[in-house]
Amino acid sequence: MSDRDWLRRPFILRSVRTLMRSRVLLIASMFAVAAHAQSPAPQSMTARPLRVLLDPGHGGQDAGATRGDTKESEITLKLAQKLRSELEGRGFKVTLTRESNVNLSLESRAQLANSGEHDLLLSLHLNSSTDPRAKGKEFYFQNQLPVDEESMFLASRENSEISFTAGSDHAHSHSHDHEVSVSLQNSLRSMNERIDASGIRQAEARKLPALDRVPESARSDVKRILSDLTRQARVESSSTLAVELHRAWRDSSAVKQRSRGGQAIRQAPFYLVSYVAIPSVLVEVGFLSHKIEGHELTTDAYQNTLVQSIAEGLSRYQQRRLR
């Protein structure tokens, strides 16, 4: 039997393919390790302040939850403006998705988050329930696990803004996910290009094989692995942010002196936290439908308590990133 015939044996071919795939995975790991270990610390974690995009939920014709003359869209804007002042005093750089009571589509908010000019997104909302006893804070980040029925209902209600802003153009509404998906892909591609440009020294880069020499199937594996790593890192950062926001509210001295109501960290398929390329959390700061909490949400004193706890949570998140 010739050497060539021996190499054609099925188990030999499988072994060769497995070896090639393993080498491709090793190459992907080398790129990731080199980018992390050899590049200087990201500017966002050293020289410049953390850049926060605050999103006051709803706006304009979309009032969100209501109670009498009180509108969610007006309270979230007021909270965002107060929070910006507090965060800027702590050294953060803050941008609002809207500065007045205007309607802004979820797609537009996602595009702002994916502009590459922000490090994290915090979306502010007020909750509402048919159960008059419901109260408390809820912190949501990108869904990775099976969703409970209540979270799915809330996400569906918040996401209904998409059809509200799309008008009656049915075909246009079906293109939203594709358009934002393309926007997300462009943001991730831009981020990966910046890593490639600055994260690997030329001496190390020369040791790595050219990507065009790797089989197409293996290249797809590398791209999928890198995409999964990027997504997982974003979800983990979002989870950390949600935890720090929750802890800051729990630890607030003003909150300890009163009944805190329910608190929860949850995952749900909210449009805005699912279609952005940066860590993101959606905060339901309280139930407008609750008799006592709904009234408190309209007062400056309680709004200031909320602002202080959210700012403290963001400060703790930043400290964890610098460790």
Beta fraction of the residues?
A: 5-15%
Determine the CATH superfamily.
Answer: Zn-dependent exopeptidases
Overall number of structural domains: 1
Largest sheet data = 6 strands, mixed
Shape: globular
**Strands of the biggest beta sheet: in what spatial order?**
4-1-5-8-6-7
Distance, first to last CA: 61 Å
Structural class by sheet pairing and helices: alpha/beta
Task: Please compute the radius of gyration using only Cα atoms.
Answer: 24 Å
Query: Helical element count?
Result: 14
Highest-level CATH class: Alpha Beta
Low-confidence stretches: 33-45, 149-155, 162-185, 190-208
CATH topology: Aminopeptidase
Provide structural commentary.
- The strands form 2 sheets. This protein has a 6-stranded mixed β-sheet with strand order 4-1-5-8-6-7, sandwiched between helices. Strands 2-3 form a two-stranded antiparallel ribbon.
- 32% of the residues are buried.
- The chain has helices at residues 3-7, 10-37, 72-89, 106-113, 149-159, 161-166, 170-174, 176-198, 202-205, 216-251, 253-256, 271-274, 291-296, 300-322, and strands spanning 51-56, 66-67, 70-71, 93-96, 120-127, 136-142, 262-268, 280-287.
- The chain is an alpha/beta fold.
- Helices cover 56% and strands 14% of the residues.
- α3 packs across α14.
- The protein is built from 14 helices and 8 strands.
- It has one domain (14-322): Aminopeptidase.
- The termini are far apart.
